[in-house]
Input
Amino acid sequence: MTDAAVPVTQSTVESFTARYLQSIGCQIDIRDNEWQVTIPEDVETSLTKGTHDLLCDTVRDPDGERDLLNPESSFFQSILDDASGRVPLGSIKVDTTDTDILVPDWLKESSVSVSDIDFTPYYDRSALVILFQVSVETVSEYQQEFLRSIGIDTRSNEILPNLDETFLTLTQSEAATVTSGEFTMEPKQAERLVDVSREPLLSDIQPQIDEIHQEASRAADAELEEYRQLQRQREEEFETKITRLRSKIGELNESIENKNQTERVEALKERRECKSKLEEVETELKALRRRREHGYPDQQHKIRERHGLEVVVTPVTITEVEYERGDVEFKLTDRDSTVSLTVGYGSGVGVTEEIDCDTCNQSLSGENPLWSITNGIQCGSCGGE
Output
């Protein structure tokens, strides 16, 4: 199953950054993964002017003297903010002259040979490719920002997993030939499609969110355990105080009878103070034990709230994509058998319908590829038995 949302790769980031900076009049000196970027004072941009030493990597700079350039780095976020502020909306057209025919996974993983492929377009369809910035953070220490793109058909709301990857490839390659035009869709319709695409996007990145949540939960558990230890230490301190006060009261009881009037008054006064202090400490100890028995609910709430996740999904750029839909014919060869298989197809999108096994009716996939065409379409689950 293809992911609905495509991660923005390191190579895409580097290609986009280089082309964008050069387009606004910046100079770039590239030496392997080390870049020196000069942003002149006369360039109209929100980027910080001057010279920037960049390291194209996803780890920290060992010297701590260079900015990182990767999909999650602050420098790239500033590049993206600057670029999207200039042209947040656009449109392109994708057809067979720009893209190769996308062979489905169930055929890529098959032992059946493809001797010929022929695509017949019937009509044009439109879609949106939306680049989202996903920010996952807690109130305390964890914060991650990453980018995901997603394609959605404007008529059917169908998620088009390959279209956003095609879009990124076509627009960010050095040999890009597609031209961006004006965005023509009504704002309300675009807003609706952005909202519709959020759910599949969030579903796709849920494992990453869960991983961050687990890190935050571990941090919360560690903080809570540290708090429990401190409270146990307080209990021990209170118990020591109580033992000492009771011992002191016992000593005062024994000494009162043997003192003169003045000393006896002082001893009685000291005993009253000790009993009052004992009552106070015993009350605090009881309250502390009661909170422990209930699991320190107030403190748990504060800690969990501090480590709770906030996920913010923000559209950065929206591109209207016109693409062709029609049929693609695969000529398949398996030993002495030859079959023509025709399925729905979209340019830059790939096969748009599922193919089922004639024997068991399971859908073909990368995990359950085409096994044989000798006696109809047969999947790996049936052919492997």
